[in-house]
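Build the 3D complex.
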Amino acid sequence: MPTGAKLVVETLRREGVKVVFGIPGLSNMPIYDELIDYLKNEEIKHILMRHEQGAAHAADGYARISGRPGVCTATSGPGSMNLVTGLITAYWDNSPVIAITGQVSRSSMGRKSFQEADVVGVMQHIAKYVVQIREVGEIPLWIRNAFHIAISGKPGPVVVDIPRDLLNAKINEEVWPEEPMVLGYKPFRTVINPDDVVKAAKILVEAERPLVLVGAGVFWSDATEEVMRLSELLGMPIVSTLLGKSAIPHNNPLYLGVVGYYGRAEANNALLESDVVLVVGARLSDRTLPSCNDIVGRKIIVVNIDPTDVMKLPMKVDVEIYGDAKKVLNMLISSVNVVGRKVGRVGWISRVKELKEYYSKYYYVDDEGLKPWKVLKVIRDAVPGDSIVTTGVGQHQMWIASFWDVFKPRTLITSGGMGTMGFGLPAAIGAKVARPDRAVINLDGDGSFLMTMNNLATAVDFNIPVITVVFDNRALGLVKQVQELFFRGRVVGIDFGPSTDYVKLAEGFGAVGYDVADYEDLRASLRKALNDSVASVIRVPISRDEFALPQLPPGGSLKEVILYGPRKGY
Amino acid sequence: MVRGKVIRVVCYYRDASLLEMLVGTFRKLLIDISWFCGGVVDESGLYEVYLGVKDSPNLLTAILDLSTSVSVSSVEIFDNADTSDYTSRDDGITKIVKIYISSQSKSDCYSWGERCG
Ligand SMILES: Cc1ncc(C[n+]2csc(CCOP(=O)(O)OP(=O)(O)O)c2C)c(N)n1
Ligand SMILES: [Mg+2]
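Done.
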């Protein structure tokens, strides 16, 4: 007679789960007890994280890199509550994470009992769905449903909360559901009206200055090839959102970079100068388009999985096509071929090149100290083209947005929607578990790294040799930048003292630490780190006075791009 | 009798978190709910909820969010429904809200990104 806990683990196995990131405690211990057999048979791996936030980020990193749901588990009370930041991060970036949380026994509920926390109440607005199990027999169906909900339509995290008495309860006969069954859930459909595709194709062919704006939908739907083919076919430059950046290889000469709040000036300008914008898999958030007026007046075609993203936009859209980006783009390509294409667009392409060249002189300034753009270039040249990069949140993330070259799709993951500091290291661990054959590098800020660096112990224990490069400016740099630019230089609450020693910190965890003084040091450390069989930390000193530019003023227009800081040389 | 916007939500009940989620969708967008009633319709868990909401610039967003929430089948908007005034107690007899909705007053219906009905 299997227990509820056995049903949990067996359903996970049947869903194809190979790894669970988590921390045990009283309420999820029955699950761990059943997991032992699966660990012994090497059917499922368990990665013991050092904080549940890290477990959720690791599951998220695993999901973003593998395209399959990442699974994490936590005990009731503090364990499940520690998942919150990780789950909302996955929710905002549409990443399929499954969290299995133990809950106190039903008889203890409502008495402020030990480690009781209202998981459903707390999490239902920070996850795609939360379900609390009421009967032991429904565990297989609801875990199955959780996977279905997490991965279908617009992906997102799902929490399954299971009272401990149900994990321990036995059942006479288990029923393995053939199909998921969720009443009141309809994953978005791909229903394409061929007339809309032809209309979109005609608009694109007739355009003088077309532009494609690529969002995370292209990443999730693996539609990189299709975007590039269409762009080449039409002579149509490409810009992206921060998350969409990972979908486009940057050696494509038509790619201009990220648009928006921390976008490249040439990308923002190209958007302003375009006459037709094809938006693929992007919801046009306030980061991508702080002011909707910037896009009004040109023809807009939107391809998106979720029609409500478009219904919420405060602007007119000329053609809306709803469905999976890959399918829609393939139809659009065929249609463009039938409609016939305008040859040339030489003027538009050379204008875009001109913009690129013009703005370079603002970006690639080289003077004293290690310059962030150059540090990124050195790293890019030193690591394999298919290396996976994760980030924290702050100036370093914005430098990556502007200056990191993605060569292969799905090789950059970052917390875009939530902007969660601390995402980098645990997400890198998840990514490396998903792709042990790839180099995985966490390009982190000192502040962000310190939020979840405890998971370095996990990386060492489990032989997950991720490399962390700490952009050490001894500051919450981005906050300082905002204070300098928009709070009249009143800098407060951002300084870190000189005492933290990143090399010792790494060594303290059994990792390898490198301190870097110049670019050559950085190259040498990277070479060693890539060959290290343990995790490593490379500390790169960056001046606390660097700015992450270009940026827009808060809520500003793409026209108001700020290219240099108030101090000379930055 | 008062006239107002009435939202009808057709959804599936698993536990009472359905109602928290539903109300929370409006609360998150700073929309006030003047009254609320509903209940189980059949054994499959089909549940129907009517809400009287104040008009708000965020209302469409709330409706679209609700119409794409797991458990919710569809969300309908009635623009000019007649409802009786809500009074909590009247000589020991509890009055409940009465809603009179003519089918013509339905202005829109959303279900998972599609317009319905
Ligand atoms: C968890 C969390 N807390 C606070 C913030 C606000 N915040 C945004 S950037 C930033 C500074 C980040 O510092 P660091 O990681 O050192 O990056 P830097 O800007 O110095 O490159 C802060 C505090 C946040 N995004 N996430
Ligand atoms: Mg910093």
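The beta strands of chain B are 2-12, 33-40, 46-53, 72-83, 89-90, 93-94, 99-100, 106-111, 114-115.
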